[in-house]
Amino acid sequence: MTLRVALLRGLNVGGANTLPMADLRGLCEGLGWTDVQSHLTSGNLVFAAEGARPELAAALRAALAARGLEVPVLVLPLSEIRRAVSGCPFAPAAPKQVHAGFLFGPARIDCALFERHAAPGDEIAEAQGILWLHTPGGFGRSKLAQRFEAVAGAPLTARNLSSLGKLIQLLDAAEETR
Fold first, then answer.
1. Which of 31, 58, 140, 143 has a CA between 20 and 30 Å from the CA of residue 98?
2. Where are the domains of the chain?
3. Name one Pfam family in it (predicted).
4. Could you give the CA distance from residue 57 to residue 59 in angstroms, rounded to a whole number?
5. Residue 51 zone, left/alpha/beta (φ > 0; ψ -120 to 50; rest)
6. Could you tell me the sign of the dihedral formed by the alpha carbons of 83, 89, 95, 97, in that order?
7. Which has the higher per-residue pLDDT, 13 or 68?
8. Which residue stretches of the chain are H helix?
9. CA dist 97 to 3, 6, 45, 71, 149, Å?
10. What is the pLDDT of residue 93?
């Protein structure tokens, strides 16, 4: 079985689409996935499964929908998470201030919208199909946090470099035990 990452958009955020991680892991195990681990409560999964990425994402979306949750899902291989981190165009002092926007469609960056809402020092860049946002003043305080998707021009799910690093650690540990 191949190790993968599933990034769920909008799970357990702002009191919406709530699902305990133990239930989410159980849901994935019910799909036949193995070695299922979660990181944080916002929908970061590491698992092993066979099948094409779109079919795995569709299976998880359907299982979530059966529980009344409409949650977009991206399934990525370890190599893509590593490539994202190594291709980060920003050299941050604080990994929690740099976010990777994993896109559900092609980006059409709205530079005017970015400029209108950017704080001093905020930066945006696209690299290898990922939209990167650097907010030195903090993502949660940035006016761009709520507009990241609008700036991208496509639906996305964002993770900071700290979370991506933890997912790589989980994947590496899972690989070592195989």
1. 58
2. 2-81+165-176, 83-160
3. DUF1697
4. 5
5. left
6. negative
7. 68
8. 21-30, 53-65, 78-86, 111-117, 148-152, 161-176
9. 27, 22, 22, 25, 17
10. 67
**Euclidean distance between CA atoms 148 and 99, whole angstroms:** 10
Query: What is the spatial distance between Cα 132 and Cα 144, in angstroms, rounded to a whole number?
Result: 12
What SS3 state is found at 87?
Answer: coil
Q: Which amino acid is at 22?
A: A
Decide: residue 14, CB within 10 A, 0-12 exposed, 13-18 middle, 19+ buried.
Answer: exposed
Calculate ∠ Cα 141-85-172, nearest 5°.
120
Phi, psi dihedral angles at 81 (to 5 degrees): -65, -45
Q: What CATH class does 2-81+165-176 carry?
A: alpha beta
Q: Give tens-digit pLDDT for 39-67.
A: 887 789 999 999 999 999 999 999 999 99
For 108, other C-beta atoms within 10 Å of its C-beta total 9
Could you identify the residue written with the tokens 């650690």? 169
Q: Rounded to whole angstroms, how far apart are CA atoms 115 and 165?
A: 29
Q: Rounded to an integer, what distance in angstroms lies between the CA atom of residue 35 and that of residue 67?
A: 22
